[in-house]
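Milestone 3.1: sequence recovery, worked example.
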């Protein structure tokens, strides 16, 4: 059982702990969360700064450290800074560029003297597909959402549309799918399908006008893509589907292909 003196000592210790925990240089906000971002793309920058919560001590910030698929875009401008009590640091700008699927919990570590500095927490998730609102992709003919077929290759949730390895200057590969409006709203002349980069040897060749399409409630529109193996290397683009009248309806999926010489293909088959 705690005595009255022990209770008072405990209360004093608790108050001191609270005060000490506040006397730090802390980031504001404490976490930057980029959500789900397509692999191979860069999310819009988010910003943060550090605040010296000490009432008496000056803090010297003299460096930042960041890891993972994140980048401080203005690190050079941050420099060494002296923060008086209650003062804020310069703002840093952070981007997220996932190179693979999965979650990437990281942090920006701030180095300081005079007052300890807390790290800025970073959160982001790399994905191959993003679907929102009324749009889903299905095979032709349509099957259940979440288990698509694109040509002869199955597409599962959070997987790219992948044409695999093709021979240099070999025949073009064509595939088709259905864009389904699974809502009860008639989408009129506002659906566009495009390629984000447009220089990766992928093309949308059907329909001829794929910038202002209509899709009836629970209806579908056929979309055909072609990949032509014109140059060696790894090729990647993003198929972007937008509804100009309702931005909540959007979808994106990564397209991938690899082009190799006949010799390279023969060597791969031999292993």
């Amino acid at each position: 059982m705690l005595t009255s003196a022990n209770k008072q000592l405990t209360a004093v210790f608790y108050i001191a702990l609270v005060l000490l925990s506040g006397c730090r240089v802390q980031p504001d906000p404490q976490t930057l969360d980029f959500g789900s971002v397509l692999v191979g793309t860069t999310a819009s920058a988010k910003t943060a700064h550090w605040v010296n919560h000490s009432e008496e001590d000056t803090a010297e910030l003299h460096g930042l450290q960041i890891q993972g698929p994140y980048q401080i875009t203005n690190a050079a401008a941050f420099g060494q800074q002296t923060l008086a009590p209650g003062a804020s640091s310069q703002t840093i700008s952070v981007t997220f560029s996932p190179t693979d699927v999965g979650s990437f919990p990281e942090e920006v570590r701030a180095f300081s003297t005079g007052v300890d500095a807390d790290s800025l927490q970073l959160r982001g998730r790399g994905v191959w597909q993003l679907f929102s609102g009324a749009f889903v992709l299905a095979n032709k003919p349509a099957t259940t959402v979440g288990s698509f077929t694109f040509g002869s290759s199955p597409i599962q949730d959070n997987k790219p549309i992948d044409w695999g390895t093709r021979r240099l200057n070999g025949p073009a590969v064509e595939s088709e799918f259905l864009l389904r409006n699974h809502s009860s709203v008639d989408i009129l002349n506002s659906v566009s399908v495009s390629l984000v980069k447009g220089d990766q040897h992928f093309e949308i060749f059907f329909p001829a006008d794929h910038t202002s399409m209509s899709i009836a409630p629970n209806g579908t529109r056929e979309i055909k893509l072609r990949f032509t193996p014109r140059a060696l290397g790894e090729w990647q683009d993003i198929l972007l589907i937008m509804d100009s009248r309702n931005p909540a309806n959007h979808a994106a999926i990564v397209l991938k292909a690899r082009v190799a010489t006949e010799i390279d293909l023969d060597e791969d088959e031999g292993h």
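The first helix runs from residue 4 to 22. The two ends are 74 Å apart (CA to CA).
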